[in-house]
Amino acid sequence: MKTLGFIPAMPEFLNGKKQLSTEEANKTRCVTKTRWVIESATLNIDDGENIAIKMLEQLTKENVLDKRLNELEKQKALKWKKHGGIFCLFPSLTSNDIENITFGSYQIHRAKSYIQEHLKTSYYNPDELTFEVESPEDFDGLVRARFQSAHSNSKSYISTIQFDTNNTNEPIQGWCCTCTVGLRVVGCCSHICALLWHLGVNRGIITNATNPLLVSNFMNLIEDSMAFSDIDNDSDDDNNIKYSLTDNFTGTSDDEQTPM
Known about the structure:
The radius of gyration is 18 Å and the shape is globular. 31% of the residues lie in helices and 16% in strands. Strands 5-6-7 form a three-stranded antiparallel sheet, sandwiched between helices. A two-stranded antiparallel ribbon has the order 1-4.
């Protein structure tokens, strides 16, 4: 294949590790982005070249937020407090803003149902649902949330986002997650995408449209499950996750293996 001008590549495997390095996760995303059958279902092909350029620009970058958090944790400087997502002073985002981060729209389509799966009864009002996030005392611009693994009740992942409400051009400063591919900066994992969508687009509000207990929304979830598998095509939780689309598309998933 090299003699024909192609560069052979395949997704990285854990090989006993709990998480891919930033470099491994970045390269893996570049590989999985080339899967025509999957990406063609949600990608505007006219944008393909621009997306490829942006992805390659990110390919060699490190996850600065992860390094910062590790240093702060060593210093025991972070004291996280739980609260409802609606109380988070998070930058306002559009779906296009998030798509510029994810390099595609599939994860955004999955975000609403992912948040629904993690709603809890409000501590202050048992009749209301809330999505819990955590913010550190004395540190502005950080928020995190915990997501249950889709494949193991004993596993959960922590997704953290760094933001700047005063920076209108680039309000999202960084992200990292403890899931298998959560350190990548070529796009982000499904957990990060879901958190971006809920806090930035949905503004942390739990409405009738996001309440999974309503019959209408329950039926919508059933319809969604007929079109998509319950796992993102980046497969945060396993090395080999099967992904399928109804009608004319069928493919195999990859990378969110085991952090939307």
